[in-house]
């Protein structure tokens, strides 16, 4: 039987746990347990990295890569280039808010694409369409139904472009981020491709083999802009709420860039 002291202690533990849940940081800002430097050291101990030779599904050799930003696409682009696959970048991200953030992310992506002479398709920034589709989902959490809607919207456009322009396969760099639900992303990709007989979605796991780690290394090497929230206005709102509750400053658009340190 629990004493009054035991009950008081249990109540205190429950209260502290509840406070922790209420003030926990959004997924995309969580701090990895293992440092980047430690991971880099272990990689060096294993010897030089050798990229695997990637092949597209069903023997195809032409790919449309939906890109959300330079940091996420950097490792994906270099992996595809190393395998000699012909590809084009498709930038369609009407979720990104505000316009200043959108333009910075797009320009960083263009800068890296031009470095390798990769064709870059700058699709429409129809943000009003995105807001219309997001109605009623304003308070949904990260990885919830609003994110599914967002992935669906972007992949539907990518699949349509692939169908209209002779790309038998499309994929996305969104899944390389560990703060995203890969199953959610792949489900949206396959659903978008199902509308067309001549298009399929490539659900390659870009995280495996150290992909997520190389994403950070490339971002530092290239001094990419370091976005501090997923992209939409609701993600920005929730991240700033968490920061205020934690005594941190709100996000300053256009201020933070990766460094080599």
UniProtKB/TrEMBL annotation:
Functional pathway: tRNA modification; tRNA-queuosine biosynthesis
Q: Does the keyword Iron apply?
A: yes
Keyword Chaperone attached: no
What EC numbers are recorded for this enzyme?
Answer: 1.17.99.6
Pfam families cross-referenced by the UniProt entry: QueH
- Can you state which reaction this protein catalyses? epoxyqueuosine(34) in tRNA + AH2 = queuosine(34) in tRNA + A + H2O
Record-linked InterPro entries: QueH
What keywords would UniProt list here?
A: 4Fe-4S, Disulfide bond, Iron, Iron-sulfur, Metal-binding, Oxidoreductase, Queuosine biosynthesis, Redox-active center, tRNA processing
User: What top-level branch of life does the organism fall under?
Assistant: Bacteria
Which residues does the annotated region (Disordered) include? 16-53
Tell me a Gene Ontology molecular-function term this record carries: epoxyqueuosine reductase activity
Q: Where is the composition biased (Polar residues)?
A: 16-26
Entry function: Catalyzes the conversion of epoxyqueuosine (oQ) to queuosine (Q), which is a hypermodified base found in the wobble positions of tRNA(Asp), tRNA(Asn), tRNA(His) and tRNA(Tyr).
Q: Which PANTHER family match?
A: EPOXYQUEUOSINE REDUCTASE QUEH
Which protein, by its recorded name, is this? Epoxyqueuosine reductase QueH
Record the organism: Pasteurella testudinis DSM 23072
Q: Which gene encodes it?
A: queH
């Amino acid at each position: 039987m629990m004493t009054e002291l035991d009950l008081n202690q249990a109540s205190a533990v429950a209260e502290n746990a509840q406070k922790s849940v209420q003030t926990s940081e959004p997924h995309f800002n969580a701090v990895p347990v293992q440092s980047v430097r430690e991971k880099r050291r272990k990689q060096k101990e294993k010897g030089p990295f050798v990229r695997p030779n990637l092949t597209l599904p069903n023997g195809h050799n032409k790919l449309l890569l939906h890109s959300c930003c330079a940091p996420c696409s950097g490792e994906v682009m270099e992996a595809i280039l190393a395998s000699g696959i012909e590809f084009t970048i498709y930038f369609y991200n009407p979720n990104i808010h505000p316009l200043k953030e959108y333009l910075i992310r797009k320009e960083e992506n263009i800068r890296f694409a031009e470095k390798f002479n990769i064709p870059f398709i700058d699709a429409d920034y129809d943000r009003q369409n995105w807001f219309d589709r997001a109605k009623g989902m304003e308070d949904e959490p990260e990885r919830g139904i609003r994110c599914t809607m967002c992935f669906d919207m972007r992949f539907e456009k990518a699949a349509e472009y692939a169908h209209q322009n002779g790309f038998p396969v499309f994929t996305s760099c969104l899944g390389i981020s560990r703060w995203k639900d890969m199953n959610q992303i792949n489900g949206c990709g396959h659903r978008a491709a199902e509308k067309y007989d001549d298009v399929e979605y490539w659900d390659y796991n870009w995280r495996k083999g150290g992909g997520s780690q190389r994403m950070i290394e490339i971002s530092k090497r290239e001094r990419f802009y370091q976005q501090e929230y997923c992209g939409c206005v609701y993600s920005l709102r929730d991240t700033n709420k968490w920061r205020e509750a934690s005594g941190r400053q709100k996000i300053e658009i256009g201020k933070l860039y990766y460094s080599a340190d």
